[in-house]
Structure formats: structure tokens, C-alpha cells
């Protein structure tokens, strides 16, 4: 079998104005679990992944298969949790960057 050459051989840098941050929530009855472990994911049916950028704008919302969402408040709650997570991760990143030595 002959190997195909890539369509675009030129490398292009990806320019990001804001960093994306994602958070997966699992929904079970009236409970929302943010950032589940793989074991927790394996026993749940309804997943919702929210991606926000560093200015808290919604980039992506993904709900793969499973049962439908019973109410829109679950989506709103997951977005709120995602906003909190973005703040936490931004703080951690800023601390890590400020602690780095520059050559």
C-alpha cells in the first residue's frame, strides 16, 4: 500500500488570543459532579463538557449521547462550575509562570 503524502506540508503556528479551559461534568439525578475520575465516569450516563476561554466566553459545549438533559439549569450549573474552574486554573498558571526563572 502506497503511503499518501500530506495535503499541507507547511507547518503553521496556531494563534490563540485566549487559552481554552475545559471541564467535564457528569449528571446523575439532581447531582452534578465536576471533573470526575475515570471510575466515576464509568458508572455515569450523562456527560457534559464545557470549554471556556480565559475571558470566560463559551467556546464549546459537548454532550455525547446518553439520556437527554432534563432541564437547562443543569447546563447553566455546569457553565458556572466551569467559570470557577477557569479562575482556579488561571491562578495556578500565573503562580507557576511567576515562579519560573527566565534565562
Instruction: Give the averaged pLDDT, no decimals.
Output: 87
Rounded to an integer in angstroms, the radius of gyration calculated over CA atoms is 18 Å
Strand content range: 25-35%
Q: What is the approximate shape?
A: extended
Distance between the termini: 49 Å
Q: Kindly report the name of the CATH homologous superfamily.
A: GHMP Kinase, N-terminal domain
Major beta sheet summary = 4 strands, antiparallel
Number of helices: 2
Ranges with pLDDT <50 over ≥5 residues?
none
Number of domains: 1
CATH level-3 fold name: Ribosomal Protein S5, domain 2
Task: Tell me the strand order in the biggest sheet.
Answer: 2-1-3-4
The helix-strand sequence is EEHEEH
CATH architecture: 2-Layer Sandwich
Q: What is the count of β-strands?
A: 4
Description:
The protein has a single domain, classed as Ribosomal Protein S5, domain 2, CATH 3.30.230.70. The model has no long low-confidence stretch (mean pLDDT 87). A 4-stranded antiparallel β-sheet has the order 2-1-3-4, with helices on one face. The chain has helices at 38-42, 72-99, and strands spanning 20-28, 31-34, 46-53, 58-62. It starts with 19 loop residues before the first strand and ends with a helix. It has 103 residues and is an alpha+beta fold. Helices cover 32% and strands 25% of the residues. A hairpin with a 4-residue loop joins strand 3 and strand 4 (58-62).
Task: Provide keyphrases for this structure.
single chain; 103 residues; Ribosomal Protein S5, domain 2; four-stranded antiparallel beta sheet; 2 helices; RNA-binding; exosome; PNPase/RNase_PH_dom_sf
